[in-house]
Amino acid sequence: MKTRKQKNLLLVELAVFSAIIILMAFTPLGYLQIGVVKMTLIMIPVAVGAITIGPAAGAFLGLVFGVTSFAQCFGLDAFGTALMAINPIYTFIMCIVPRVLMGYLCGLIFKAVKKLNKSAAYIAASVSGAVLNTVFFVGLLMLFFGRSDYIEGLRGTAGLWTFLAAFVGLNGLIEIVVCSIVGAPAAAAIDTAVKKLSRQ
User: Fold this and answer.
1) Is the dihedral of CA 6, 42, 72, 154 positive or negative?
2) Contacts of 127 (CB under 8 A, 6+ apart)
3) What pTM did the predictor assign?
4) For the domain bounded by 4-199, which CATH number is listed?
């Protein structure tokens, strides 16, 4: 049973992580434009929150990430705006569901790997944020829009796997590297600090 202080600390953590996500989403801190798509770094605070607070918090922070991603589709991001024009419901699902699942699963992965090795758990959960976000997002993109004229136009004469490799290859690699270098140490430091605060 959580004490009142622990509950208040939880709310503060969620508010801080949510604020970081929103700040990153609407400033250059969160996205790096590479070609037609944007590489995102917003999964880092989602993964860190999932690690330090738990899977449910990860799902909530993933939802915050997803909402900001969907907001980008209203003229702020050319790719998202194009998908929105094709099918707004599919676009909404594609923006929200992968991010919620990613946040939740990051927390579960951390809990599972932590039983074997705590240091490895921080790395595994942080890296999984980038991997899961990419896999879920691209999976739904192909499912919902793979046969659309817009995606077919981007593909050109390239085969499906060639297109996917070019579409997410560099982005995914950069996201994985950044998550392992930044996310894991940040999660470990915050996790330690929060545990100390909760015991005071």
Assistant:
1) negative
2) 176, 179, 180, 183, 184
3) 0.86
4) 1.10.1760.20
